[in-house]
Every structure is written in C-alpha cells, then in structure tokens.
From TrEMBL:
Species for this entry: Denitrobaculum tricleocarpae
InterPro entries: Cro/C1-type_HTH, Lambda_DNA-bd_dom_sf
Name of the protein this chain belongs to: Helix-turn-helix transcriptional regulator
Domain HTH cro/C1-type: 23-77
MF terms in GO: DNA binding
CDD domains: HTH_XRE
Pfam families assigned: HTH_3
Domain of life from the UniProt record: Bacteria
C-alpha cells in the first residue's frame, strides 16, 4: 500500500523548485533573458518567469523543449538533486550566477581571456 518517504527524500514541491532553479541557472549561463527563453519555447514572458520561480510546474513535454533550446539533456535539470535540495539561492551559488551573468556580457574576447587567466591565477593561490 502507500509508504511514506523518509524525511531525507525531497518533496514534489522541492523537486519542482530545484528544476526551476536549474532552468534559471542555465538560462543565465547562456546569456538568455527570460524574454528570449520565452520566445524560444513559445510561451509568454510571464509563463517563463513562473517556470523559473517554481510557481508553475513544468510539464515533461515543456521540460524536453526547454532542454532542447538550452542544448542540454533533460537529465541536466535533475543533476545534483541526490546531494540535496537547496531551497534558497543565497551565498556562493548566487555569486557564481552573478559572475556567469556578468562574464557573458563581456563582448571583447581579449577581456574575457584576461579575466579567465586572472581567475585561474587567483584560484591557484
């Protein structure tokens, strides 16, 4: 019959929110605006925004379309979920997204290269 999930298992709502955050992360990494994503998956801007916030659940068919447009397999949106659900987007994760967003806006290839080299140098200590 019905068996309750252990407390460590994420709820459907947590999974939906996780997928929503992964959609947002990928969109930002690609340098897409929400409007650009909406146009490519043929929904309104408001609907794309609701998908990213986790307000509206993304259907399997729509997730397949989002994955196709973003150049990733559907499984991309579930990667890392086994390690746990991160409900909030603060701290290092938020900083990484800001860094990716700003880097994608740099148009000069030499500036991008210089920034990558600087990051590598700083990371190596």
């Amino acid at each position: 019959m019905y068996q309750e999930l252990p407390a460590t298992e994420p709820s459907n709502q947590q999974v939906d929110k996780y997928v929503a955050n992964r959609i947002r992360e990928r969109r930002i990494a690609l340098g897409f605006t929400q409007q650009m994503l909406a146009q490519r998956i043929k929904v309104t801007y408001q609907q794309a925004q609701k998908y990213e916030r986790g307000t509206n659940r993304v259907t399997a068919g729509r997730l397949f379309e989002i994955a196709r447009v973003m150049g990733v397999p559907v499984s991309y949106f579930y990667e890392g979920i086994e390690q746990g659900i991160e409900a909030d987007e603060t701290g290092p994760k938020r900083h990484h997204m800001d860094l990716v967003r700003n880097f994608s806006r740099i148009e000069n290839a030499k500036h991008q290269l210089a920034l990558r080299q600087l990051c590598r140098t700083l990371a190596d200590g």
